């Protein structure tokens, strides 16, 4: 089927010839290798079945192409300001579009599709946009470590972690994300694997915590920083931690004694068992590109990055933000986040 191909005069002549035969739009579409909705719109905007004429329809189409319209973002200053606010916070076009519905529920003028925002960004890159959009698409140039690379690293390390409790023994309540306080964790690595940052994601709210590992990422230091990072959480948010079989967690028992949080380990080569954390690590590479020395970033900068991620609306949360979701969770249980 021809998709994205503009109708020309010969196709319109075929439509004009087939309409009097009584064929349906679906039948005409199959005959011309076009979607039936394309045929329906073409006939509807040009007088209907009885009035449709090929050359008249072609003349109208040529006139529409010759008369470019301003995009909604270009003509509405309030809408432009909201889009730029989202882009400035590194939100995706889809997040911006969906959040407008929540923030302006009774104002239909504050609506723009994510496709329109993408198109505006692309037009701006070619110098064809009349207004200025801030920033760029947040994943520009960002790539993840492939599964094959992770597998090679894992096989070369010969990790030995004593007394592991596997993910199969994790409480069933963790799976449906209905109960807060269950976290997924990992490290993102710097140049030559000589520096690292702890990344934590709460499964039910997608709330993110980041921890700076000074000097090294040995098991002893990882356990200490993790204990400091999670030890001050309210009891409601200290139910479990799921990690891969990285040797940095060799002292997981010390962490559990210090915090009361049990650690569950994923199966080998199974990053999808920490899906929320894997997704977050991909987003974090925008802020911490591969090949950089992560020692250069302060804990205060890490906190600012986490706050930015926690302020992004998420589709899986009904376009609410992780910070909003966590606040609702804590307020409903009489708690407060003190970190």
TrEMBL record:
Signal sequence extent: none
Annotated transmembrane regions: none
GO biological process: DNA integration; DNA transposition
Gene3D superfamilies: Ribonuclease H-like superfamily/Ribonuclease H (3.30.420.10)
Protein's name according to its UniProt entry: Putative transposase
Species of the source: Gordonia malaquae NBRC 108250
Integrase catalytic domain ranges (all copies): 167-330
GO molecular function, a single term: DNA binding
SUPFAM superfamilies listed in its UniProt record: Ribonuclease H-like
């Amino acid at each position: 089927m021809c998709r994205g191909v503009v109708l020309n005069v010969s196709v319109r002549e075929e439509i004009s010839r087939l309409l009097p035969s009584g064929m349906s739009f679906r039948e005409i579409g199959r005959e011309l290798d076009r979607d039936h909705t394309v045929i329906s719109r073409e006939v509807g905007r040009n007088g209907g079945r009885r009035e449709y004429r090929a050359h008249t329809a072609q003349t109208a189409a040529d006139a529409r192409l010759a008369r470019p319209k301003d995009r909604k973002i270009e003509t509405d200053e309030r809408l432009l300001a909201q889009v730029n606010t989202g882009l400035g916070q590194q939100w995706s076009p889809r997040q911006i579009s969906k959040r407008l519905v929540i923030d302006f529920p009774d104002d239909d003028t504050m609506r723009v599709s994510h496709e329109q925002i993408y198109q505006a960004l692309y037009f701006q890159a070619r110098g064809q946009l009349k207004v200025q959009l801030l920033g760029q698409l947040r994943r520009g140039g960002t790539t993840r470590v492939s599964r094959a690379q992770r597998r090679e690293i894992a096989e070369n390390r010969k990790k030995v972690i004593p007394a592991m409790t596997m993910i199969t023994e994790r409480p069933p309540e963790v799976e449906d994300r209905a109960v807060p306080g269950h976290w997924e964790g990992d490290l993102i690595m710097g140049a030559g694997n000589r520096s690292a940052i702890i990344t934590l994601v709460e499964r039910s709210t997608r709330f993110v915590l980041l921890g700076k590992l000074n000097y090294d990422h040995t098991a002893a230091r990882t356990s200490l920083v993790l204990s400091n990072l999670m030890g001050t959480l309210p009891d409601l948010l200290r139910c479990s931690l799921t990690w891969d079989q990285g040797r940095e967690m060799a002292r997981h028992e010390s962490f559990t004694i210090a915090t009361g949080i049990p650690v569950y380990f994923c199966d080998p080569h199974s990053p999808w068992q920490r899906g929320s954390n894997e997704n977050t690590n991909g987003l974090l590479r925008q802020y911490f590109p591969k090949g950089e020395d992560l020692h250069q970033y302060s804990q205060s900068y890490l906190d600012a990055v986490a706050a930015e991620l926690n302020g992004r609306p998420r589709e899986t949360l009904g376009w609410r933000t992780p910070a909003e979701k966590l606040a609702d969770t804590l307020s409903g249980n009489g708690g407060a986040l003190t970190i």
